[in-house]
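This part of the workshop introduces the protein records we will be handling. An example says more than a description, so a record of this kind follows.
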Amino acid sequence: MENIEQKDLVDEKNKDKRTKMLIALILIVILATFITRFYTKDRPAETSTTSSSTEIFVSESWLAGEDGGFSFKFPESFGTKYISPVDWPIKINLYEQEFSCLEAGEEVLPAGQTKKEMINDKEYCVTRESEGAAGSVYTNYAYALSFEGKTLIMTFSSKATQCMNYDNPEQTECIVERESFNISLLIDQIASTLKKLN
């Protein structure tokens, strides 16, 4: 029993350390992007689009949350069977730096992968860091966007079951869910509910 409690404590410390590293990485990326943008002002920025424009719908069943001086609405779960939130609801940090994004990295490396995403005509800088463990893939996310001339960052993590651990028909159901689920649209829905607390 004591070993289980120690393991849980170590897991919690590692999760906190990963979240802090992810936020630090995003701040470094934002700073590097700001410096790069300063030296390349006249070059047009390229933006990759991964999520199409759709009407933003927020269900009345969503819960109310507060963090980092903001209120927001969020769903209790992702509404999926094989993908679930871990560090949820989102955590919010507002930084004084002007929003910018430097694309770099790989999702499976410790620092993760950072990419620009246009979601419903709003630019995000998205960092994803994934790690497999005991039949699941854990992914840390950081969605940065411009807010009143500053940079707002929303962080959370998810757990996705390894679909190959199942036999059919569950395996196929899991794969279809993974391929069709768009976490970015959900985060944009949550971002549309953000209100600064005074």
